[in-house]
Design brief:
The chain is α/β, with parallel strands linked by helices. It has 7 helices and 9 strands. The protein has a 5-stranded parallel β-sheet with strand order 1-4-9-5-8, with helices on both faces. The termini are close together.
Length: 228
């Protein structure tokens, strides 16, 4: 999977007024050479179709869903939810699913990554990234525009920045050793292993701290593959 060229991603903030500029995208497989006395030329490699993603993010109750639905309707796309609560079936109050808004002018607008898992299931940013990549591949193959809508910034960043993550299995022996150490020691160890820690919650909750260390040690032994 080749990730979209950075210029192929258009961003909208639902909490601000503005205009939308149409982004035609830059096809992959086309190498451009620029020289002082030469024109821009394209390689003979057949270009792939542009892989565009329209991103709409903003706070709760800012009108993201309605705007996303209208954009998907007008641009021939599907809405892809990027919300850490909307993935749960039965969690309808306070999650802002607004499922009734996915019908516009009598037409149902397809949506994805809503009501995916049961309430007792653990759903991580890693799982979201993998699920979202799969949905994007399906939509690009169908020549549909993904309209990524949500307010969970970490989810959106994991997709757009291509976070390199692995599915680390549980390690009971390691957990037992870590459980004997103080929280401060665990925090220092995690910061040493992952100096660019992006999730501060992992440092505050002891159970999450141990799990984060479990993942960090596993990642050292089994580095993740390159980001798609």
């Amino acid at each position: 999977m080749k990730w979209p060229h950075p210029r192929n991603k258009a961003f909208l903030n639902a909490g601000m007024q503005g205009t939308i500029r149409k982004n035609h995208g830059i096809p992959y497989g086309a190498d451009t050479f620029a020289g002082k006395d030469q024109e821009h030329v394209m390689s003979s490699t057949a270009p792939e179709p542009p892989r565009n993603v329209l991103v709409l993010l903003g706070p709760t109750a800012s009108g993201k869903t309605g705007l996303g639905v209208r954009l998907a309707h007008g641009l021939g796309g599907d809405v892809v939810s990027a919300d850490s609560r909307q993935v749960y079936r039965g969690l309808d109050i306070g999650s802002g699913k607004d499922l009734a808004e996915y019908t516009l002018d009598g037409q149902s607008i397809p949506y994805h990554l809503i009501d995916c898992v049961d309430l007792d299931a653990e759903y991580s940013v890693f799982q979201f990234q993998q699920d979202c990549f799969a949905v994007l591949e399906q939509l690009w193959a169908a020549k549909r525009l993904p309209v990524l809508v949500g307010g969970t910034g970490l989810y959106i960043e994991a997709v757009l920045q291509g976070y390199r993550m692995v599915a680390a299995p549980e390690n009971p022996a390691l957990r037992a050793r870590l459980a004997e150490k103080s929280t401060e020691t665990l925090q220092q160890t995690l910061c040493t292993l992952q100096p660019n820690q992006h999730n501060s919650t992992d440092l505050k909750d002891r159970d999450r701290l141990i799990r984060a260390l479990e993942i960090a040690y596993y990642t050292q032994a089994y580095p993740p593959p390159p980001a798609p």
